[in-house]
Fold Crp/Fnr family transcriptional regulator.
Amino acid sequence: MHTLLQHIAQFTTLSPQLAEELRQRAQHHCFGKNELLHTADTVCRRTYWIQQGLVRIYFNKDGKIVTDGFAAENQWMTSAYSFMRGVPDPYAIAAVEPTQAYSLSLEDLLHLFNQFHEMERFGRVIMSAQFLEQSERLNSLRFTSPAEKYQHFCTHYRPILARLPLGMVASYLGITPETLSRVRAKG
Amino acid sequence: MHTLLQHIAQFTTLSPQLAEELRQRAQHHCFGKNELLHTADTVCRRTYWIQQGLVRIYFNKDGKIVTDGFAAENQWMTSAYSFMRGVPDPYAIAAVEPTQAYSLSLEDLLHLFNQFHEMERFGRVIMSAQFLEQSERLNSLRFTSPAEKYQHFCTHYRPILARLPLGMVASYLGITPETLSRVRAKG
DNA sequence: GGTATTTTTTGATTGTAATCAAGTAGCGCC
DNA sequence: GGCGCTACTTGATTACAATCAAAAAATACC
């Protein structure tokens, strides 16, 4: 638990009261390889902070699995739209490796946001960071060739590259496994 | 000014003190058609709330102008990365129509976030909404055909469609003007 | 009102990555 | 250690939108 508190303390002041509330509310989880953190077409009730391990979010597009994102140590993962708006969506989340995580429900978060200005700060800062990260990804998808996409992935996701099957990387990059294979053969 | 305050009050409680601080800090602007709100390769120092009119953000890619986004009445516009991180970036912002806007600097915002929990709430809620909107755009860019992209634009941006040259719409959608023209000819 | 410029349309060709189709290698599991 | 499955590679073909090119329409400007 102290690792989650450390993470939060990087972005906001963490009062003893807030730390205590977080300790009470956060749930700890262990997931085996391929175990689901969240099932498609259900409401995603929790947001997960990955302490150890690696997870992915994906959905089924015309019978093919499309990976939409990854989260490893010290990162957050949830099905954002479903979680924030309380509606089902097509995404599922699964552990790529055995994973340990803490989670909070939306109710927990909203309570903490209400109770603690500093937690509201944390929420704002994290959302801003996610927004900027997503902008960069959008630009990469929009303007770069498959080779550049792969290069970008290698430099920005080096720590997890070796832990992922290439098919997942390909669909995350918006290219086919065949194209990724050819890109790698050349580089 | 009261329109900006109304906008903020939609997302958070607006105390008289916060309203007063906003009145003191927000600057009012009038921009003529094609006038720049922000110049490329400089630090974007302000975020603009559009009271009346229409603006676009764009950059120069290999000699071609690529439109990256629009903001009309009741929407915010800034060059996000530059504004938040205080570094230059290649984006410029220009008025598509004569435009009236209010603006806040990062210093203003950070002061207000510090001073007022309710303003920090507003920041978090707006960033969350922007994040979800961007996710939807990312999915549209990634998975849909030019015709579907245009359809999506028509349904989600109807109020501004008629106010924009098609070339701007095309580059926003990540397709060429020729392709957009052909899509429109068919539908 | 007429000229100049920009925007939009239409047509022909090309390039790139997707698709289709095998085949090979790697790995988990008994 | 061998079987069976999944992951990855390689090759041939196709589809789609980009590019190149030019004409037509709309708009701005004197």
User: Anything to note?
Assistant: Chain B has a mean pLDDT of 96.
